[in-house]
Specification:
- Strands 7-6-5-4-3-2-1-8 form an 8-stranded parallel sheet.
- It starts with a strand and ends in a 6-residue tail after the last strand.
- It is globular and about 40 Å long.
- The chain contains 7 helices and 8 strands; from the N terminus they run E-H-E-H-E-H-E-H-E-H-E-H-E-H-E.
- It has helices at 14-19, 40-52, 72-88, 106-115, 135-144, 160-173, 188-195, and strands at 3-9, 24-28, 56-60, 92-95, 120-123, 149-152, 177-180, 199-202.
Length: 208
């Protein structure tokens, strides 16, 4: 059975996505910059509504858009947001942190993973910025820290399926689930069949 996880911008789209059949939902603000953390109020209402309808809720945790490494204040913000999400009963967190060299920022990620205790962990689409030759090492570390999923939109410069297939092989070896991202509703079934996955993700992955 194919599961689709739509990435929604704030609470307003949540009821319609659930009516359309979504069983997993990712929520963020400011998708134009890649997604930032929703407010505490939105977080609380979204998890209440999702759980009333037996739907799993994941949150993007990010204080801002952009690719620069996070500073100390931003790390504290994310840590506080994760602790809040945990207390409210959010099911999962989508987190990312890279260094200037496009390597995992293991110091930041260790802090975030500790703050997210008990939630399902997904490493976000920053994964695609890691050089292909470095991805195996990155996935090894993520798996060792209890991360469950990795999002990938594939490398736009070449065939996405080829890139996904290579990354999925590495992820499978570590027991991680690679989730194809930036998927449209029209291509979801074919992508899932080509990659032999049962979960896809993206802002237009579900028609509602």
């Amino acid at each position: 059975m194919l599961l689709v996880e739509p990435l929604l911008e704030n609470y307003t789209e949540l009821p319609a996505a659930i009516r359309a059949g979504a069983k997993r939902i990712a929520l963020a603000d400011n998708l134009a910059v890649g997604g930032t953390t929703v407010s505490k109020g939105v977080m609380a209402e979204a998890v209440r509504y999702a759980h009333e309808h037996q739907v799993t809720l994941d949150l993007i945790i990010a204080p801002r858009g952009g690719q620069a490494p996070y500073n100390g204040v931003e790390i504290k913000m994310m840590e506080a947001d994760l602790l809040e999400a945990q207390q409210l009963g959010v099911d999962g967190a989508i987190i990312s942190a890279l260094t200037d060299q496009q390597q995992l920022d293991v110091e930041v990620l260790s802090t975030l993973i500790a703050a997210a205790g008990g939630m399902t962990l997904t490493f976000g689409q920053a994964f695609d910025r890691i050089r292909p030759q470095d991805r195996g090492t990155a996935l090894d570390w993520l798996a060792s820290q209890g991360v469950d999923h990795v999002l990938s939109a594939g490398t736009a410069a070449k065939d996405r399926l080829t890139d996904w297939t290579a990354s999925k092989r590495l992820a499978d070896a570590d027991g991680l689930t690679l989730i194809p991202a930036d998927i449209t509703a029209a291509e979801a079934t074919q992508v899932a069949a080509d990659l032999k996955v049962n979960l896809v993700y993206g802002p237009q992955v579900l028609d509602f």
